[in-house]
Amino acid sequence: MNINKITIWLVVIGYLVVNVRMQVEFFSGRNIFAKYHAAANAVEALSDAQHAYYAKTAFLLVLLFLQACNMSFGLSFGLSFFAYAILMLIFFGFGTATTLYLLGSAALLASYFYGKTLSV
User: Fold this and answer.
1) pLDDT digits over 1-31, tens only?
2) Cβ burial 67-78 (10 Å sphere, 16+ → b, else e)
3) What is residue 17's DSSP assignment?
4) CB atoms < 10 A from the CB of 22, how many?
5) Per the confidence metrics, is the pTM higher than 0.90?
6) How many domains does the chain have?
7) Which range of residues forms the domain containing residue 33?
8) How many beta carbons lie within 10 A of that of residue 117, not counting itself?
C-alpha cells in the first residue's frame, strides 16, 4: 500500500469518527455544528447547518466531476477535500475542525504528489 492510500484511509477514518460523534451529539439533543460556530439563536444554527451542507455538497460534486473526467482517485479526492476545507474556512473561519480539514487535504495532496515522484 502506498503513502497516498494510507493517507486516504487515515482521512476517511478520521472523517468517519467525526461523523459518528456528530450523530451521537445529534441524538443527545446537542448542537452538532457548535464545533464550527457557537450559534446565538435558531436562525444562526440553521445558517450553520446550511453552510455545512453547501460545503459537503460541493465536496461530493467536485469529487464526482473529477472522477467522471477520469482523474485518479487519489488526486480527485485530495482536490475535492481541499475545496471542502476552503469552503468550511470561508463559512466558519479557523478553528480546530476547519484547520484539521485543511491539514488533511494538504496531506492528501502531498502524499499523492510524493507518491508520483517515487514512481517516476
Assistant:
1) 889 999 999 999 998 998 898 889 889 888 7
2) eeeeeeebbbbb
3) H
4) 15
5) no
6) 1
7) 3-119
8) 7
Contact 36, 92 (CB under 8 A): yes
Within 10 angstroms of residue 54's Cβ, the number of other Cβ atoms is 13
Dist. CA 67–CA 101, nearest whole Å: 21
Nearest to 65 by CA among 47, 48, 77, 53: 77
* Residue 19 and residue 97 in contact, taking contact as beta carbons nearer than 8 Å: no
Q: Is 40 exposed, middle or buried (0-12, 13-18, 19+ CB in 10 A)?
A: exposed
Nine-digit cell at 59?
465536496
Are 64 and 47 spatial neighbours (Cβ–Cβ below 8 Å)? Answer: no
The values of phi and psi at residue 28, to 5°, are -90, 0
CA geometry: angle at 8 spanning 3 and 14, to 5°? 125
Report the chain's mean pLDDT, rounded to a whole number. 90
Residue at 106: amino acid letter: A
